[in-house]
Each structure stands twice: as structure tokens, then as C-alpha cells.
Amino acid sequence: MTTREHGAFPLDWHPEPDLIDLRRDDAREALSELGERAWDLALEYVYEEAMRRPVGPQDYSELRRTFFGPAGGPAPAPRSPSPSPDVLDEVRRRLLPHLYNSQHPRSFSYFTPPPLALSIVGEMLGQWFHQGVDVFHGGPVAALVEEEVVMWLRDLISYDASGWGVLTSGGVMANIMALTVVRDRHLASLLGSGPPRGSALERARIYVSDQAHFSIGRGLDILGFPESALSVVGSDERFALQATPVAARIERDLAEGLVPLCIAAVSGSTNTGSIDDVEGLAQLAREHGLWLHVDAAYGGAARLSARDGGRVPGLELADSVTIDPHKWFYQGYDIGALIVRRRADLHATFRRSPEYYRSSIPETQPLNWLEYSIEGTRRFRALKLWLSWKHLGTEGLGRLVETNNDVAAELARQIAQSGDFEAAVDVPDLSIVCFRHLADGWDASESAERALDEHQDRLQRALEVSGEGWVSTTRLRGRTWLRAGVMNHMSSSEDTAGLLESLRRLAQGL
User: Fold this and answer.
1) Is the entire prediction scored with pTM above 0.85?
2) Strands (E), 415-508
């Protein structure tokens, strides 16, 4: 077709005009060919790179030199167009060898499970559909898909029909939004005022364990609370927060004229997967009129399993819960969620009605998700989870969670039976195992402990370079531990045995 037919604008300056103007006669065929090339590239990555090793051997400085070249930094933006095959080939050459590969069965990651195929399809379709899930008219049925997915998550937590929620970018955003509700609804109620600001925040106290996610402290900073508002209570020997020490801290603060406001518990900590005593903390919160928020970004997915759901008890007792489908629902980034016991709390906190989002038929009261979220522009996150949940069902997703828990338990058993490894917790609560290799000649002296800390760091790097596996490191009680997050449903007990054998062999060369 000519450039002027059907109002088309001139595109003779681009080598692939059919990929820009979708009205052109050959556009559909060109787009189909592009999709086939992109999908083939994705599968090439999975089977020729991701299954080869968990991550490349280069460190940060080396990778910068490799990626940026002699310039040592980002290149200027390209001035002229390039054919899509050339662009995809650059992805193949410059990106594929240097990615973190969650699909590798010995990639024992942070919280990065390989996304399910229908999650990936959902991302692709969501980009083509391009719905703005903020105001109803920008994504009509997308708003309803999010509502349905949020209700599935609400039911998973076992809230009743008054419960509600909203999808977020992840656990950080969900936790910050939960704290915003705590400030503007619960603290306002305690003080008998409007939404508290400034000096009204100074006496409030929010109780967390030393294993709480960093986003709780960050959220309080953003919301204007003083540093003293965060009251950190030590966890027990399994890194869980118990009600008794929190009760003592509350009594002390009451005696000092402070305002106990909220307990922010964890069901599945980032460090160890530890689970706080949510039921005991819920009773304590009721007794003293505190809000109970539970960060179940990771552990909440255990509720998918009829067998393992009891590992995360008491979520239904909380006033709000964070849960991240891009963690243990095997979803691609990004999709988190905040679920609340009372819809009105979320709506009253975030409701804004800009005049440019008005409806010509206001009597229908359309669902505008921006009224439940910090975010304005919101993409169609729900679609990938909607597709995946329909494809596997709750039972199928639960089976994947159970597989991870079983493999983690087997890793802990293998460590316990070895003579040269020790675990921070003998039996993991969920699917995270923190452990360390005991170098020859180790004893309990402080100097030996420091040397052992350094040994773990060197060993982690050696494993990374070898390509035989990947674990992260963390600090627990002042010591360095290797951290294996079993989040890949393709990992097996043979992979955990192979991981320990690789570590053992690599340690000999350090």
C-alpha cells in the first residue's frame, strides 16, 4: 500500500514500516514473523543459556567492561533506526550470556522462581492489550479481572466478604500502603483526629522483629514517622517474633505515655523463611487495640497447599496482609498485593477523584482502582496471575509449593547428616535453608568465626564462577551464612546433593 492510503503517514525512513503502522497490508505477517523470532530467541535463552549455568562468572566491574566496551559507560541514544533482527541479535550477543537464570535447577535464588508459561503469555498479552487499570474507562474488563484475582487472594487468606485488596508492584509498595492505612485510619481513630501528620506521629510505636523486611522502616520514614517509631524486638532461636517480648515492650511504652499503634509480623522472612507467632500477636493486638499487619509476601503462598497451609497460621486474624504472587505463585515480575479486612479502610485512605477521570454515567459508580492505591498509572498485572491460576488451579500451584518445601527439607537433612556443614535452623519453616561450610580446623573462637565468615563469602563466589550452582549470603546473629532459597519447582534433592558436593569440592581449593 502507499504511504498515504487510509491516512497512513510516510514511513519510508524506516527499514520495517509494517512494524510501526499496523494498518498496512503486510503488517500482520510482519508482526507474526517478529513474534516468532522473539519467541525463538526466548527459548534459545532458556535451553542454551539458562539451563547451562545459574549466572555468568563475571563480577560487576568485569561485566561493565564487557557490556559497555571501551567507553566504560552507557552509549548515546541511537539516532538512526535499525532492523528488528539486528536489535534481537544484539540481545542475543550482549544480554543472554549475562542474565540471572532462575530456570536453572541449581539456582537457589532470593525470591525469583522461574515464571510459569501462562504468566509469560499473560505479560505478552497484557502489553498488546495495553489497559490502564487505574480508571475504569481506561481498562474496563481489566478492572474486573483484577477484582476477581484480588478476591481469590482474599479467599486464600480467609477474610470474609467485607475484605478487599489491590495489586501492587511488590511487597515494598504493599507494606508502605498498609502503613499508610495504619496511619490515616487507625492512628486517627486512636487520637480522635483527622489523618495525623507532623508532631502527631511522634508518640506512635510500630513493633517488628529483627527479621522484618526493610520496607517497614522505609515506609515509616516516607510517611513522616520519626526514627523512634520503629520498635525492634528480638526474635527467638528460630528467628521468629513471639508475643511475650512484644507485650513487655508495649507495657513499657504505655507507662511512658507512648501510643502503641501496630504490630508488623512476618510469615516467611526474607532471611530464613521464619514465621512469627501471628496467632499470639493477634491476641495481643486485640487486647491493646493495635493494628496487626502481616508481611506474608513470601509465606502467604503456602496457603495454596492443603498440606502445608497450616505452616502460616493466623493470617485471617490480621487487619492487613501483604502477599506477592511474583514470589511463590511463580509469576513474572512484577505483581504484589495488599489485602485488607475492611474495604472501607483502603478506599478512605487513597480515594481521590480528579475531574479528568469523571464518568458521564456516575450513577453506575465504576470501579476505579486508583482510589485504592498509591499508584496512578497501573498496568494489567492481574492477567498473568488470572491465566496461571486457571491453568494450574489452586491444587496445582499448591503442589509446586509442596515440592519446594520438600526439597528444602531434604537439603536440611543432607546438611544435618554431613560432617562439614551446619544449618542455622535444623528444620526450615518453608523453603529457605541458611547454612555454612565448616572449614578444616574451625573452632568456636572469635577469630575462627571471623575466618569462617570470610570462608563463606569466598565459597559463594567460587560457586558463582564455577557455574555449578548459585546461593546468596546473609548475616544472622552477626555471622555470615550461605542462603539457599528453593523457589524453582524444577529443583530436586539430587540438585541439593550436587550443590553440597560442589561446595565441598570448591572449598578444598580456597
Assistant:
1) yes
2) 421-423, 432-437, 472-476, 479-485
Domain assignment present for 346: yes
b/e code 452-474 from CB counts within 10 Å (16+ = b):
bbebbeebbebbbebbbbbbebb
pLDDT digits (tens, 9 = 90+) for 139-168: 999 999 999 999 999 999 999 999 999 999
| Pairing of β 432-437 and β 472-476 | unpaired
Three-state SS for 122-162 is HHHHHHHHCCCCCCHHHCHHHHHHHHHHHHHHHHHHCCCCC
CATH number at residue 448: 3.90.1150.170
**332 and 463 within one domain:** no
Give a yes or no: residue 471 inside a domain: yes
Q: Phi, psi at residue 152, to the nearest 5°?
A: -60, -40
Query: What are 427-458's pLDDT values in tens digits?
Result: 999 999 999 999 876 777 888 889 999 999 99
How many folded domains does the chain comprise? 3
Alpha helices, DSSP H, located in 306-429? 325-328, 343-350, 382-417
* Residue 29 structural domain: 5-101
At residue 442, φ and ψ (nearest 5 deg) are: -70, 140
State whether 440 and 456 are in the same domain. Answer: yes
Q: Are residues 148 and 270 in the same domain?
A: yes
**Residue at 351 is within a domain:** yes
User: Average pLDDT, whole number, for the chain?
Assistant: 95
One domain for residues 34 and 142? no
Please name the helix (run of DSSP H) or strand (run of DSSP E) that holds residue 262, with its range, or none. strand 259-266
3-state SS, residue 106: coil
